[in-house]
């Protein structure tokens, strides 16, 4: 029996100690690896800057080089990658921005920042100006897609179960109020921000805020102006969409003033470092960061740095220059190329046939683009143009003179004929569904990185993406002055830009000249879509008509002439063809002038009214 | 203290610290138990010595133990009643025991599957022979029900299936999941990938990924799959409320593995197994040959009115001849795929003395890839199990399981190194070979995608990928019988699983050929060297303490168990990337490193308290109650613990007299009804990450280059989630088991339902305006259901020397979306299309095809706009669609459910298991099959000349054709598929429809095993106890309605890595 008692004692001991472990429930209390408290953030300068870096990484929308496909949805480039592009019309939420989570994060940050004790007052001022600018920028991106949206100020909302959600419901601001708010915030931010430049224009300074002021004002002005010139203007009764016509001149004046402030007092200029080579000069003004005086604000990219490179170069480099598997995902289309003027001729069409309808023969395919606006060569790689010092061969095939007719001969890319002449070059173009081969006849030049290794998957490119640059200030000033009836001032500005492109001066200026100039100056820079919207031209240019010169995508195919014994043998001719990989012409409908309001937003907040056509 | 720094000492310290109080009170239960065990050992030692001192008069007794057929029995335990004095019989059934109590001594004879027998020691005779009677009622198995607890199958009431070592090891699968396929009811399976070392997806009743428990320790699927299955004693599959003993991770069922151990008092046995096999592809679509490809290309250009043909009539003639230089077809399939060896060797030793038993095993599996030049999978396993009976009451066991495994292949660009070879089979045209001028030193560009030339995917040109895992699991457990019926058990386990992944992808060049100069100019240069290394480990510390009490009184049997379990796991891992300066530089230095990411520890902690009560009365009325209180670190402090109860009950009417006396009773000798109900948990709540209950900021999220330098981002977290917790599954199971004709025919049948509640959803009727910047947090609101049945039938008998067994099992488990939080629909069509309320889940929608247009006239007269372009794109052979809503146009409104789930295990699985034996010969066949899942043919299997590549031969052979490929107006020859036209992949023919999306049915001869065991008389002179030679084959035949593709694949391009067909010769020797 003694043993039994002993054993029972032991069991009790065991059970007790087991029960004891229950009190040890903080065994389940673990520390996460990557979560920091508010105090850890606002008690440390380094962490405050880290949050700011997060914000800078989140404010890119619309067309940008992180998304090469975005260049193909308008009339600038076409997709060559794999099968055809089925895009038939623009979606109701195309490039829509509605990031109130980000707005909340800005406001959380402002709240924490104002209470922080580790920063000096002047440091706080700069941070506050920067974040308020970024917030205005976010509203701006929201507004140009959706029109007026709720403005929540500095509010950081909280929610407790059971609270009255009615107090959280904000109505939409009017479109005009929205632009006014953005302009006012930029004015305030400009006072807090330093006037000096910073590395690679990656951070907002005073001039960035002034530029957004100018851009917002010119947008608001042109909306007030051109929307009301439509047969039936697009507006809502509450003005959430649609700005009264009488506000136009005020906005134009604000725009002119802000743009002139940048032109006259900022440290930036129309970059002119290579007057002997205007193509190269233009390329460098946009695509080379070192000693750049043109760019005011850009999304900077860098190597190394996790997620801080872009694969635009990797994806779009010509096959002949590729360093990795990817290449030729998209290429500029003829529509854009022909919109660049000749030095002395405003009609930029490429001369491929003479008046009798016969081919025009060129000794070198590049000759077809002689005397063009220098910006063309700075934005587009033309057939046989140089990239990284070697020519980019672009040849669709042979034109063979055969019994009095021209016969087109194509081949698998890179194949040669019996005489050793390349038939279809390895770069293309062709009209197949093959991957990794060009289909438009042109490659991107603007933003294509020349750095070795920049087109490899393992490295990618550190090319930046400019958001504001000096030429925009000049063209905003030109537009505003023109709209305010100050022709000579307007001409003075626009001819500055044309001078840099090496093309003739204008002697009179109209809205069409502004549209044309912005089209070629700002190709691939996220302006075209928004410009055609604010001028209410998008539905006219992208009219959805098959084989229309503006809505259909067009390609230009160079051919080597094979006509032995004739003088034309070995010369080059061109065919103008529809771009085979975009099946449908671009079709912008009136409903696309404003993104649709998500019905869920209205369900959650009945004060949100819908947009027109919805 | 930072508890994330995983380190054994700290862990122990931490556990001690958290006990609080003085030193004495700080005793950990586990230490407490060890302490107990140690003192008890000493105590037992004393007692034994004392006994020896007093036993001055001894007598010795010998005898032979047989069964009723007079066959001697080896390993029978002979115990002197009331003492620890015990021996076992030898090979001849003989025993010899020294009796301690000279007066009134009683000997107890015990042997598995036989009734125990007690005999008085005869007063005047030193010989005692005994015949043991077989216990007919004992269905042979003892079932592991979890936590090292076992139960006889006859008293089992939960839904637990068991498979023993013999059935497991019959398979040739390189991993354990493959060895279970088709052999257990209630298991759904699908092997979507067959690469070396690949596993089969298995789910218990389609409930999701199960929890794996190996020798009492919760582990992951990788650990389970990579056991050497010759080391496995048994696998139990817990399918219903019986899984509740595993609490918050058991909602998808539990697979419990027990490894082999030696038995006490058995002689030393050495077993050697070795086999060698050849593997090749079971099914993989063959690309079209050159002539077929060119003919179809020409035909397409003819139809599309392209007058500058890529291939002229002259060219075609040359390709047909195929001998002229530049016109030699190339077979990429033969170039890439080959037959490769697989071999396996295992040696194990087991045995035991009267105190210690052991099982040591070492095995190696080497599986080569069937892609030429590629490496494969190599795994070495070591298992060491030792059991030591320190005294009658005190047993200590040590278990070590270790493995070393590598996967090797060339360093190939892209995420999946085994993708390019598969892709290359189709992307490269049969008109071009891999080498410039046919010279193997110069790989050339074979398509626009330089990666696809398989010719350079070699170690020399492409570099090398190597993934190595080194894993060790150590368990120590001890059990102590405190007094008769009360037992304490404790287990501590430690595991370390290290990964080292090295990958170096070289820069490479592709060459052209210049005939004039006979030189090979470089035409493509890849300048993207990629060097990466992943280093990390998973470290786990577990403890498990139990107390069990058993009592039998007058037919009432009671067993109570209580215990606790804790698991602590960390997974520190880091990854780095460099761009090396040269291919020869394999070492990594900082100066060319551009990324280093530290994934962190990802600490995980779980704690559970378990209890279980079993009661039965005379084996007729059975009841089991299970409960587990379980906590998970993922959830907030005040919402961390959940209680998971289960109850199972059974009634065995065949034990009742009325049954035994009835006519049915003569036929049905065993019949049991059983049912269970329980709630089990799942802490992997979708959309909830650990620590989501915390506010604050996330470090290392986004970032930007500002001021010219990269600044790592920090982002505010969303609202803390305090409204979400684990999922709860209610499982109901009702079943019967029957044995007929003296158990020659056995069957069981079960129906089940699992209602999984707590799936996250937001209470959207609380409408939060979008401008506040956050959405309403999710709550546990939605639910889903699985319902189904499973059954198994087996007939086992013998006719003289011929033994045979025929069995089959079937599992059907259907998924339903069930409760949704107040569903809303804008109209009835919206409800039809999008409702998820109490409806079959994963419905696969698409257009319904109605055959093909047969003539131009038919198209001209067709009233429905079949292609949304006024039917102007249609040709004979194109697909007709059913206009479901009769609006005259085919669009998404005409879609209806046309298929089942594509990406998971099938709804229906079955297996057929046959085995036959005659004298030394044995033959067994395992068939496995499935149905009610959907395969969708897309890309290479559907789109004509996909992205400039090739299509399968079977496809081109069966398309609509022109009688004269040069004449668009020539007669049309009908086929099963529309005519393939270049660049036409957006055509209405290739819309999502049941023409391409088909319901799959299949049955495979998964294993065939034919062996011969040499008779004893031949082996004895060689001092062997057994020798078996065998042939075994895997995936020898497949019958399916899916053309060209392995029916278990799910890659819609048909290029999933196919399963292997393996033919193996092997030998097993025991001595």
Q: What topology does this entry show?
A:
The complex is a heterodimer of chains A (614) and B (1071).
Chain A (H helix, E strand, L loop, with lengths): L1 H21 L12 E2 L1 H5 L2 H12 L20 E3 L20 H16 L5 H26 L28 H18 L13 H21 L21 H18 L12 H10 L7 E5 L12 H5 L13 E3 L1 H6 L34 H6 E2 L4 E2 L2 E2 L5 E6 L2 E5 L33 E2 L20 E5 H14 L3 H15 L9 H11 L6 H7 L3 H4 L12 E9 L9 E7 L20 H6 L10
Chain B lengths: L7 H10 L11 H26 L4 E9 L9 E4 L5 E3 L5 E6 L6 E5 L6 E4 L9 E3 L9 E5 L2 E4 L7 E5 H5 L6 H5 L6 E4 L10 E4 L6 E4 L2 E3 L1 H5 L6 E7 L15 E6 L6 E16 L8 H14 L9 H9 L10 H5 L3 E13 L3 E13 L7 E14 L4 E17 L8 H9 L31 H4 E21 L2 E20 L2 E4 L10 E5 L3 E24 L2 E15 L2 E6 L14 E8 L3 E14 L3 E12 L8 E11 L5 H5 L1 H5 E15 L14 E10 L2 E8 L10 E14 L4 E17 L17 E21 L2 E16 L10 H7 L4 E2 L3 E3 L2 E4 L3 H5 L18 E3 L14 E4 L8 E11 L2 E16 L16 H5 L3 E2 L9 E2 L23 E17 L2 H4 L6 E9 L3 E3 L19 E11 L1
Parallel strand pairs in B: 1-7, 13-16
Antiparallel strand pairs in B: 1-4, 2-3, 2-5, 5-6, 8-9, 10-15, 11-12, 13-14, 15-16, 17-18, 17-52, 18-19, 19-20, 20-21, 21-22, 22-23, 23-26, 24-25, 26-27, 26-28, 27-30, 28-29, 30-31, 31-32, 32-33, 33-36, 34-35, 36-37, 37-38, 38-39, 39-40, 39-45, 41-44, 42-43, 45-46, 46-49, 47-48, 49-50, 49-51, 50-52
